[in-house]
Amino acid sequence: MNEFFQKDIISVRDLDKQKLETIFDATEKIIQMDPNQRREIARGKTLGYLFFEPSTRTRLSFQAAIASLGGTSLGIADIASSSAQKGESLADTVKIMSIYSDVLVLRHNLDGSSRFAAEVSTKPVINGGSGTEEHPTQAIQDLFTIRKEKKKIDGLKIGIIGDLKYGRTVYSLLYALGHYDVEVHLISPETLKVRPDSVYEIKKRLSFTESTNIDEYIDDLDVLYVTRIQKERFPDEEEYLKVKGSYVIGLDMLQKMKDNAIILHPLPRLEEISTDVDNTKQAKYFEQAEYGKYTRAALLGLILNRDGF
Ligand code: NCD
């Protein structure tokens, strides 16, 4: 039996290096597979999605992924149109979805929401983003992109810039990077540094520097991972306005970077990467979004098939 069969994916902290590598190998297999053969992997299976927060890539890539495996999807993309609006509890909503589907994806604004959903669901639950806590499938796709584009992960110098306090993708990425031999530089406004309690554990495995100044590291980085300032998570709009536009990666910044460095972003991008960077060879964020479809297909294939595929 494969170790992902019927298992939840709640936190990157539940995935060791060997499990991550299993997903990456399965993703390579998905990419190379004949489409007809791929459509047998989840034939007749249903993905149920519950998105209590906006999403473009995560939901659509999961839907594209299950479709590519021959399965189907149903769900709620706009929670205002569901019975949650009438006051139905998250537990009941999840229970109902687990009756109608074979695997669930949940995105919710509360930390711990996916862990809770997994407890009440009779079907495996995948965390599609829980509060400011984690976004595990994003980290899987981020690491896969690095591996694909840089041909390795070990030995790289990785800068992570932007909203490191509220950006959940940052935490999942750091937890995953803890399994590799990398040098990490965190760059953010003083008020948006990583939450010390959330990185307390990871500090034992991963060494990182913290700075407000991107110029200190920009010419040395192999990977620059840019994040959006998470406006919706600020308790106070005034605080957001103080840090809005703190860093903008434009062509001038690109000039300072190594020729073979890559720029990643989980997207959506606002002003933190100017659009004229999009056509440069360093910009890999659209490839990153594409890889998300394959990594999610691999994960679904492993969760839904006892012996893998
Ligand atoms: C991210 C998220 O929802 O955390 N989006 C995504 O899934 N790619 C990042 C963000 O919203 O800034």
Provide an overview of this structure.
It is a single chain. This protein has 309 residues and is an alpha/beta fold. It folds into two domains: 12-133 and 292-304, Rossmann fold; 136-289, 3-Layer(aba) Sandwich (Rossmann fold). Helices cover 37% and strands 14% of the residues. The chain has helices at 17-32, 35-38, 57-68, 90-100, 113-120, 136-150, 168-177, 196-199, 237-243, 251-256, 285-304; strands spanning 46-51, 72-76, 103-108, 125-130, 157-161, 183-187, 208-211, 223-226, 262-264. A five-stranded parallel sheet has the order 7-6-5-8-9. A four-stranded parallel sheet has the order 2-1-3-4, sandwiched between helices. Strand 5, helix 7 and strand 6 (183-187) form a beta-alpha-beta unit. Helix 1 (17-32) crosses helix 11 (285-304) and helix 6 (136-150) packs across helix 11. The structure holds N-carbamoyl-L-aspartate. N-carbamoyl-L-aspartate binds at residues 57-58, 129, 135, 138, 168-169, 228, 266-268. Residues 57-58, 129, 135, 138, 168-169, 228, 266-268 line the site of N-carbamoyl-L-aspartate (NCD).
Write the layout of secondary structure elements.
Blueprint: H1 17-32, H2 35-38, E1 46-51, H3 57-68, E2 72-76, H4 90-100, E3 103-108, H5 113-120, E4 125-130, H6 136-150, E5 157-161, H7 168-177, E6 183-187, H8 196-199, E7 208-211, E8 223-226, H9 237-243, H10 251-256, E9 262-264, H11 285-304
Parallel strand pairs: 1-2, 1-3, 3-4, 5-6, 5-8, 6-7, 8-9
Helix pairs in contact: 1-11, 3-11, 6-7, 6-11
